[in-house]
Amino acid sequence: MSKLEQMLSFNKGFVENREFEPYLTDRYPDKKVVIVTCMDTRLTELLPKALNLKNGDAKIIKNAGGIVTQPFGNIMRSILVAVYELGAEEVIVIGHHECGMTGLNPETMIQHMKERGITGDTIDTLLHSGINLKRWLTGFDSVQESVLNSVSIIRNHPLLPPGTAVHGLIIDPGTGNLDLMADGYKHLTA
Q1: Does residue 148 share a domain with residue 122?
Q2: Is position 15 within any domain?
Q3: What 3-state DSSP class applies to 168?
Q4: Do 72 and 35 contact (CB within 8 A), yes or no?
Q5: Same structural domain, 74 and 117
Q6: Does pLDDT of 190 surpass 90?
Q7: Per DSSP, which regions of 84-140 are E strands?
Q8: Exposure of 78 by Cβ count < 10 A (0-12 exposed, 13-18 middle, 19+ buried)?
Q9: Which residues pair with 31 in a beta bridge?
Q10: Are residues 67 and 149 in the same domain?
Q11: In the prediction, which pLDDT does 134 show?
Q12: Which of 14, 31, 126, 177 gets the highest tally of CB atoms within 10 A of its CB?
């Protein structure tokens, strides 16, 4: 049985046994926060537990590194939807120690792509089309700097409502300990 078939088989029993009932909620975050964080598997259950979040408390946006790289990309759009349409009032960016995006080498990743069947012609076509593939695939050197950069992009976004607190944290993926990098409340009163 394939992984997908296993998941679908489990899902059938999950629904038939009404195991979804403890998770029923609506689409509006009860704690009125939107969190941008990493897709790291260690954070799947740890992060909500470390923040005392239950299903329905927060909008959680995940990507590689938990970063906002451009002010008009998908992550920022999702933040704005959470704020304007779903009732979020604060934004929290949470990076983590030992992140796979730290020191990510684009040359190595491109080599891995080629090993998995992406042709050199495809890579060259993208490069000649003006896509800075190496920049797009570059990670960051410091999780602290990455969190602070993302916080800055969000805080300075022309469409973010004035007075929106934007915080920055770093979580330890082993213990769940949180370190405050940017206090959005202090920033608003400064």
Answers
A1: no
A2: no
A3: strand
A4: no
A5: no
A6: no
A7: 90-96
A8: middle
A9: none
A10: yes
A11: 87
A12: 31
